[in-house]
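REQUEST ID: PR-0412
SUBMITTED BY: lab tech R.K.
PRIORITY: routine
TASK: structure prediction, single protein chain
INPUT:
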Amino acid sequence: MSLRSCLLKLLGGRFLFLLLCLAIPCRAEQVLLQPNDRVAWVGDSITEYCSHVGIVEQYIYAVHPDWKIHFFISGWAGESAPAAQARLERDVLPEKPTVAFLHYGMNDGEYSAKSNDVVARYADALSKAVQKLKHAGVRVILIGPTCVDPDQRPQLGKVNYNQTLRSLNEVALNVAEQEEIPFLDIYTMLIDYQNRLKSQNPQATILPDGIHPGTEGGMVIASSLLSQLGIKHLPDWGTFDVTTGNGSGIKLEKYEEKSWEFTVRSPSPPAFYVAPEDDALARRSGLIHYAGRKLTVKGLPAGAYRISLDDLPGFDATSQNLSQGILLPDWSSDVAREMRDIIREKDSNYHTLWNEVRIFYSGIPGASKTISGLLEADEGYHLAVLNLAATSRKLTITLTFDPGSH
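STATUS: complete
OUTPUT:
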């Protein structure tokens, strides 16, 4: 499944400003995950440590808590596709996954110029890993490699390593077509984004060490994956016209001098948490299209407005922005923040289970009890996340005229 470029226009205001024109992947024609799926993330250190995995998990829990999807991270730093074949039996299949995200390529290129031998080894190993998973009844979703930042690692620029990774991305697409499985292209969007960012600021990077995505890079990858997986967006907050009193989704509860207080008519799910300090990155990366919910208020007097959720101020927007509709994340949700934190704890616990205890200590007397305890903890974390995701609350949105805003 390839990416298509669409133009993203971000809104103006103190924190709502034009940052970049992004290549946004178009949505998948069908949803690739199903209720009750057990999903394994299989890959190298980019899978093991980088933030896009947790972002995707949190978002899917938020919008589909009834699906009760269970995630397992099985990334191994430094690994390449040939090594994955041997590890699937030990680390992945015992969890009885119904779906596996298979994400290799960064190490497979051997950090060198493109060579036919490297490409052939990658194609062969990837095909065998896919076939092994399919033989076990697992639905495989193949993810192409990411890119590198040669400015952070000049030696990778000298060998044109992004060209090597581009070739491996094409190989992964070919394997997916041959095996008739979905392919998620994140290379194209990531390098596109990196090039656009550097065109405005040559010192900027989304790959701080040249290879592994940082916070912003993780948001870019997560946005791309969510779109290509066909995951739905959060519902709009609502629309209201203060001149006519008509609206949908939100209700005007109180008006005071240049201050409008609305309640959301339907109980609000915990949604996806974006910390206020990460708002600009979420907008620039495109993640706001998943984290944000659209709020439209027409007929306001011209000027700038401070927006608050449950009395917690977030940022400003102009009356023009609001009349056109703004994407507003729920930064006030304690439940969403707790979901994010518990997901991180769950992933860390499972990493300890398989990467440390099960592999290195399984033969030691008493280790089986430790393994059982960690598995029970994993299930406990999973249930805690599902319970939080199923909660809802009434929410108040307040718009206050701010003559000091620009």
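NOTES: The chain has 13 helices and 14 strands.
REVIEWED BY: pending
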